Amino acid sequence: QVQLVNSGGGLVQPGGSLRLSCTASGYNLNYYAIGWFRQAPGKEREGIACIGASGSSRNYVDSVKGRFSISRDDAKMTVYLQMNSLKSEDTAIYYCAADFEVLCLPSPPHKDDYQFWGQGTQVTVSS
Q1: Gap between the Cα atoms of 43 and 16, Å rounded
Q2: Per-residue pLDDT for the chain (127 aa), expressed as one digit of tens each?
Q3: Torsion angle defined by CA atoms of residues 98, 103, 106 and 111, in that order, rounded to the nearest 10 degrees
C-alpha cells in the first residue's frame, strides 16, 4: 500500500512561487506514475500535471504550462510541483496521486485513474 503525504502549501502573493512535495512510503515510488490535482471551492477536482514512472514523460494542462514544473527524486521517494508566477485562480487544495498502471499522457490526468492519494495541501494566492 502506497502512502502519500503532501506538503509545501501556504499563502503567497500573486506572482510568487511555491514548491509542493509529495513523499511516499510503503513501496518503491519508482514504478508509479504521479499526478497532481487541485480542487477549488465549489469545483471539481482537476488534473493539472503528471510525470511517468522513472520520469519517462511529463505533461501539463494549458492553464499551468510554462509556470508549473513537475519533477521526481525517486531516491527520496518524493515528487515535486514547482509553481511559479502564481495567480489568484491557482488557489485550491492540491493533491498528489499515484498509480502503478496509469500512463502520463498529454491529455489531463483523470482522478478516477489514480489509486493512491495524498491528504492535500492548501495553496492560497492573494495579496
Answers
A1: 24
A2: 789 999 999 999 999 999 999 999 887 888 899 999 999 999 999 999 999 987 779 999 999 999 999 999 988 999 999 999 999 999 999 999 999 989 999 999 999 999 999 999 999 999 9
A3: -40
Residue that the C-alpha cell 487541485 belongs to: 38
Query: From CA 22, how far away is CA 20, in angstroms rounded?
Result: 7
CB count within 10 Å of CB 13 equals: 10
Distance from C-alpha of 117 to C-alpha of 106, rounded to nearest angstrom: 21
Other C-beta atoms lying within 10 Å of the C-beta of residue 52: 17
d(CA 19, CA 1): 26
Grid cell, residue 114, equals: 489514480
Would you state the cell numbers that stand for residue 33, as one nine-digit string?
506514475
For CA atoms 114, 49, 81, 38, the dihedral sign is negative
Cα–Cα distance for residue pair 52/103, rounded to 1 Å:
6
